[in-house]
């Protein structure tokens, strides 16, 4: 019964994005077909290649989990989180520039837009990293620094990114696959599974958060391949992936709050939870979570714009 209820609600959320008329033949600036409701023969768009990506992604993820379990110094150093976020930062900077190059904006407008996005984003990342290293997010501080780090960027950034006409132009010029495939880095959330197994983080928080992150990362590439087909089915797969990724964060944030010291704590675990603010684990809620939420929001806006584009 619970499963039917969850499936029904997920279907209802997807239907919100399916309600508008669908474009039937336009192509994006990169030659990628826009979303279409036309039925596509399984012989034309086989569903299997997307799932084939899991054949190499799953073994590599398992090898990574075994590696950080056998060598805990890797996770404790903070290098994996730093590495994948610096890589994501570089890909965002490159993708943003390539997307802007495909718009009708002038060179000055493209440069101004790129700087207007990348300068605040880089400063935000730098401040979060510095705060994590210097113990700003540790419990016992006067301000609830960690909850602010999670929610404030989303509260400020979401309206700016979702309502900006310039960002809308950019999303129309970019392939819908980019924002989906980018979150492959979520597989590194497997660090929470290892931390729970080693007794470093409470299992009540770490297992649901880690499993959700790993599944989101694993299915990022199949979802991107699906949406690249330009079919309504592929588009629905990308929407479902985005909703699942956001639901993972909702669960993780809630469990993190109720198991961490502070006014929201309802459960006192045997070991410190993520909200204790210890480096490097605190980097995830302090920066990775809110930035990933904004990427999901942008992807959903892009998919909806592709659905409502004029014929």
Write the layout of secondary structure elements.
Layout: H1 2-18, H2 48-52, H3 54-70, H4 73-76, H5 79-101, H6 107-133, H7 145-163, H8 165-173, H9 177-181, H10 190-197, H11 203-218, H12 220-228, H13 232-259, H14 283-308
Helix pairs in contact: 1-13, 3-10, 5-6, 7-14, 10-11, 11-13, 12-13, 13-14
Description:
By secondary structure, the protein is mostly helical. It has one domain (78-308). The relative contact order is 0.17. The longest helix has 28 residues, at 232-259. It is globular and about 55 Å long. α13 (232-259) runs antiparallel to α14. 68% of the residues lie in helices and 0% in strands.
Helix content: 55-70%
State the low-pLDDT regions, or none: 20-47
Count every beta strand, where a strand is a DSSP E run of 2 or more residues.
0
The H-and-E topology, N to C, reads as: HHHHHHHHHHHHHH
Outline the biggest β-sheet.
Answer: none
How much of the polypeptide forms β-strand, as a percent range?
A: under 5%
The number of distinct structural domains comes to 1
Number of alpha- plus pi-helical segments: 14
User: Helix/strand-derived class?
Assistant: mainly alpha
Q: How widely separated are the two ends?
A: 41 Å
Shape: globular
Q: If you average the pLDDT, what whole number results?
A: 83
Question: Which radius of gyration do the C-alpha atoms yield?
Answer: 20 Å
